[in-house]
Amino acid sequence: MVYRLAVASTDGIVVNQHFGHAQQFHIIEIDPENLAYSYAGTRETERVCQGHFHNESSFDKVIDVLSDVHAVIVAKIGQGASQQLESRGLTVYEAPFPIEPLMEKVISDKLWEVDKWQFPTKN
């Protein structure tokens, strides 16, 4: 089984986006059998955060774009947005770090086993 992570990044090098401000997510696939990862593409979406509130329609669109993802890695996320993602089966990490060493850490710690990543279902 391949696990997919959505990384909120403007440049694909560093996790540098707040979840609500992200307009794209870089998708990384992890192959747990070979303990390897690869870049699988970038998905465009609209910002969830509109000032100091979340646009529910935009939130649902982001969830649709990430419907096959197991975990989301962001620089920052509010408690409400984090709870919504988790209630839909996604694991959320705040990790404002360079992506490459972060992926190496995810693999070395086998986070898909430790955190019991679920396959999300559309609600």
Walkthrough of the structure:
This protein has four helices and seven strands, in the order βββββαβαβαα. It has 123 residues and is α/β, with parallel strands linked by helices. It has one domain: Dinitrogenase iron-molybdenum cofactor biosynthesis domain (Nucleotidyltransferase, domain 5). The strands form two sheets. A five-stranded mixed beta sheet has the order 3-2-1-6-7, sandwiched between helices. It has a two-stranded antiparallel sheet with strand order 4-5. The longest helix has 10 residues.
What is the CATH T-level topology? Answer: Nucleotidyltransferase, domain 5
Unreliable stretches covering 5 or more consecutive residues: none
**Strand-and-helix sequence, N→C?**
EEEEEHEHEHH
User: With helices defined by DSSP (H or I, 4 residues minimum), what is the helix count?
Assistant: 4
> Given this structure, which CATH class is correct?
Alpha Beta
Structure summary, number of beta strands: 7
Helix and strand composition category:
alpha/beta
Q: State Rg.
A: 13 Å
Large-scale geometry = globular
Strand proportion: 25-35%
